[in-house]
Design brief:
Bound molecules: zinc ion
Strand order of the largest sheet: 1-2-4-3
CATH superfamily of the largest domain: Metalloproteases ("zincins"), catalytic domain
Number of helices: 8
Number of strands: 11
Order of helices and strands: EEEEHHHEEEEHHEEEHHH
CATH architecture of the largest domain: 2-Layer Sandwich
Number of domains: 3
Helix content: 40-55%
Length: about 240
Amino acid sequence: MPVVRLGNTEIEYTVVHSKRARNIRLQIDIDDGVTLHVPPGCRESQARKILFEKERWLLKKVKEFQSLRMERETRLKRARREFLYLGKTYPIELVRRVTNGLRGGLQGGKFIVEAPNDIPIRNIQAHYPALFERWYRQQARALIPPRVQSLAAQYGFRYRKVFIKNQKTRWGSCSRAGNLNFSCRLLMAPPRIVDAVIIHELAHLRIMNHSERFWKLVATMDPRYEEHEAWLKQHEHLLIL
Ligand SMILES: [Zn+2]
């Protein structure tokens, strides 16, 4: 990986020669790090200049993403002990039973994981993400469609179907056919955020873009939408399995 030295900081980056890129572009992502997109006909040495031109921005972003990654690491470690549901944390308790396979669910203020006696704890914990995902999906299927229905009725929207997915990068989406999709991980967020995402997608049934008109429509249903959008931006790296 090439490295650029900016002040006292060395930053690794990936170079992508992209046929479709029109301009030299710098991108930063929590997983992929810094990427330099080089358009056709541009030399890499030429493209590299942007790293120095955007030095201040880049240094700031790299720092920001480092702390996001650390926060996420901490969250992932805690994900073995603390279960996140509708904005609250519940302790995870492992109960040994004569059972085959792993089961789990919220019971009396705890997330109880039932596991067979003979499986070491590490192996059980390795299955937590799949177990949790299954549970979030179930809850999402039970909770989200009725909530969509009631908000749609309240604000006069018509949609076709609601699908629950586990999209990595989106909390919700709306198709041209009028179907609404939501990520099951949305149930990690507080209820007001779940509502905000539903309202956002309902509004897309009428306006497919993020124009001023769109945000005005959202504001009529969710006057604090800016706060809710900001909450998601700040926390989405923590709402992981
Ligand atoms: Zn949108």
